[in-house]
Design goal:
The chain is about 20% helix and about 20% strand. The protein is an alpha/beta fold.
């Protein structure tokens, strides 16, 4: 079964060939990612728990997929790097399994390889998770007009020069620096996903520094992963790259207050 599992560093990489497959994805286990897995027609999925975080947002989608009849589980973000399906397959340890997966024998503490052997018997889902809107909107904050996206996949190259708040994790997808951001933003924020194995949840920061893009991560216990609205409402900065620090931004600051206080000259 492990030889036939579909490996997706991001659940947004799923396509028409994914239907009916069992997948291991480096994406977080929140509602946005779970809805994408459901829409792709996967039979079962293993995601990353992203530190679980505020209101269990990092596994809320895994749990919700049970309502569709889809077996789903999440790996402990400290056991395998978020954004890397390969590391999850080779080193991941299950931290959460939904009700459907539990009936197949999945349980916390199992390796992903053990879990996949059990998921070989996963039933086809009998319904689809209610779609999570691909939320992208502008928010006025102090002198700025902030672009908010629940998923960094919604960023386009035309967003260059903007301040962008995302709900996505701060890990490099597949370890690829070119996937750190689709746009040459002025400043961009991510959820730190509990930092995770090898501090992978902060790994976009140096990659974006190399491009002259300010980048911040937000403490996963301060705001819900997958929600830009939550990031703005209660997010607290946990790490900043050098470009962002030069703007006066740093750990411990409330994101919304810090952005509102930035003068146009600082960014």
């Amino acid at each position: 079964m492990t030889d036939t599992a579909l490996l997706l560093d991001s659940i947004t990489d799923a396509d028409a060939t994914s239907r009916g497959r069992v997948a291991v994805s480096g994406s977080h286990g929140g509602l946005y990612a779970a809805a994408a897995a459901s829409r792709a027609g996967l039979r079962a999925v293993v995601l990353n728990d992203a530190g679980i975080g505020l209101n269990r947002a990092g596994v809320r989608g895994v749990e919700a997929l049970a309502d569709t009849g889809m077996a789903a589980a999440a790996v402990d973000g400290m056991s395998a790097e978020i954004g890397s399906a390969r590391d999850m397959l080779e080193n991941g340890v299950i931290s959460c399994a939904n009700e459907v997966a539990q009936t197949l024998g999945l349980a916390p503490g199992q390796t992903v390889r053990d879990a996949l052997a059990r998921l070989a018997d996963a039933p086809e889902p009998d319904s689809m998770l209610v779609p999570v809107p691909e939320s992208r909107w502008d928010e006025a904050l102090g002198p700025h007009r902030i672009l908010c996206v629940d998923s960094a996949s919604l960023i386009t190259p035309q967003d260059a020069g903007r301040i962008i708040v995302t709900g996505s994790h701060g890990g490099l997808i597949g370890g690829d620096p070119t996937r750190a951001s689709k746009a040459a933003a002025r400043l961009i924020t991510f959820n730190d996903a509990g930092r995770g194995k090898n501090d992978i949840g902060l790994s976009r920061l140096p990659a974006l520094d190399a491009r002259g893009i300010g980048a911040l991560t937000l403490d996963c216990m301060s705001c819900e992963i997958g929600s830009a609205a939550s990031s703005l409402a209660s997010g607290v900065i946990s790490a900043a790259n050098d470009t962002a620090r030069a703007m006066g931004l740093g750990p411990g600051m409330a994101l919304a207050k810090a952005l509102a206080a930035l003068s146009p000259a600082q960014v």
